[in-house]
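Quick note —
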Amino acid sequence: MKLYHYVHCPFCVRVRLALGLLEIPFESKVLSYADEETPKQLTGVKMLPIFDFGQGLAINESLDIIKRLDEKNQLKLELLESSLFSELNAELEELGKSIHNLAMPYWVWTPEFDEESRSYFVAKKSAKRGPFHLLLKKADAEKKELVPKLWSLEEKLSPWYGGEAEMTILDIMLAAHLWGLYIVPEFQFSSELHQYLQCVKEKCHFVYHADFQHPEVFLK
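Predicted structure written out below.
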């Protein structure tokens, strides 16, 4: 089975976290952001992640992929129909604006990007969010706006999101979005949020840049 993904993408990170927690072996395929042909061949649209289950079945949409992978419901998938899910989804939509504005100017200099994909990414995202050099100038203000929202999140982690006793699909969603902030210089999580994310990392056997730290095909 193969996962086609971008390393930086929080929706792709969701699937990687779930695969690690569920201990499902997979072949990692990091695509160039400028590659439009491969995803369109697989699913008809340029949207990642894509999970190829074999025998002609390839799907995107991170939560749909996880639902199919989690056959034993280890992640309490019924929570996707709960008010907690709706609440978290709204929070992530709001958090995502700040997280992406802060992280994007740094994502493009990671090993995932070459000159072609970097130019493609910058042009596409700048059209939506404004030039990257202006995002960098606004970073301090963006951080000040973000921090109180993160404090509010901390109150819902006891020990897992929504007071759950074990890690659930909601933690996969939250951790995947927050992880991007680790790349932002001088940004510091609170000790509580950092510990939470490191616990997720340990449970999911997660290595953010695994594909570039290990040149061979990455198999869990």
